[in-house]
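ZP: hey, is the coproporphyrinogen III complex queued? I don't see it on the tracker
AM: it wasn't, my bad. submitting now with these inputs:
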Amino acid sequence: MANETFLRACRKETVEHTPIWLMRQAGRYLKEYMEIRKKSSFLEMCKTPEIACEVTLQPLRRFELDAAIIFADILLPLEGMGVNFHFAKNEGPVIDRPIRENSQIDAIKIIDPYKDVPYLLEALKMTRAELNGKVPLLGFCGAPFTLASYMIEGGGSKNYLNTKKLMFSDPGAWKVLMDKVCAVLAVYLRAQIEAGAQAVQIFDSWVGCLGAADYEEYVLPYTKKVIDSVGGDVPVINFSTNTGPYIDLIARAGGDIVSVDWRMELDTAWERIGTDRAIQGNLDPGVLFGPPEFIKKRAAEVLKKAGGRPGHIFNLGHGIILGTPVDGVAALVDSVHELSSNK
Ligand code: CP3
């Protein structure tokens, strides 16, 4: 039976239960994922549509999730931009030549998704067909800041000093870089939507390293440009973490749904975002390491803060953490459905 609860909640329609999906719902906490991962690298998995499709569907076989998210990565567009990277063992992504010179910014190419990430588009088509309407399929991309920060830092970072250095000391170069990243993300999202993505999430995972005024000046206009480029065709989720102190500015960048983390109460966040918008969140992913009855209690608290208002999509405040117990995920999904139905 078709389950459109997620898309209806995105549009702030009333729903029979609060929809739930989880960031990083596919991955290493599942043994069936690890079976495949043993034989292929993460990037090989992303680049093989049959595998990406299979891994996208794995969590849906275990849990009654209300949406699927395509198995991919925010860094996939980099290759076509001419910024090569690899995943180092237990280290996460490593950019071969981090962007530190203006000439490197000038050399960045605007991708053609049909030539540069055909495997992703094929995986979306295949997964959409395979889902056959069971639940909606999400596409995604990194937000301009988070993607640029990887390109500049060369990987994850504690203080984002190379990024801030460029931003503060050469605003002209920052603008050129961000404009290019925006142009890439616009075509990247558009192609995903054409390939079958029914909603998209923009991940600004690391933008919380900035203060409010710097977010407003150096980031907001670019994130807004990417969101505007989707042009209202499908719902857009504007995701960030650690941005509670300026969640109103995050909301100003756009998005039909604003995703919030657990550092702020959901009701307070919703007031500041504006209750005319939908909201996603916001359980601490660490809660899934607690016992089932604790998970249920915490899920109930989030639902209480949402107050049964239309437009709440249940999610974690950030992705599932490596080592998360499968039973914890099951307890959460079942609790959210049970506690929120027949409201
Ligand atoms: O949500 C989903 O299930 C869809 C798949 C998905 C992945 N990455 C798969 C993945 C999504 C939505 C992402 C987004 C992503 N990728 C983000 C934003 C989300 C967030 O967590 O803030 C970021 C920052 C990245 C970049 C990235 N990719 C990092 C930092 C890492 C290494 C960290 C880690 O957990 O090992 C990856 C690798 C990655 N992306 C894995 C998966 C399943 C692990 C690959 C493996 O070794 O099996």
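AM: back. The mean pLDDT is 97.
ZP: great, adding it to the tracker
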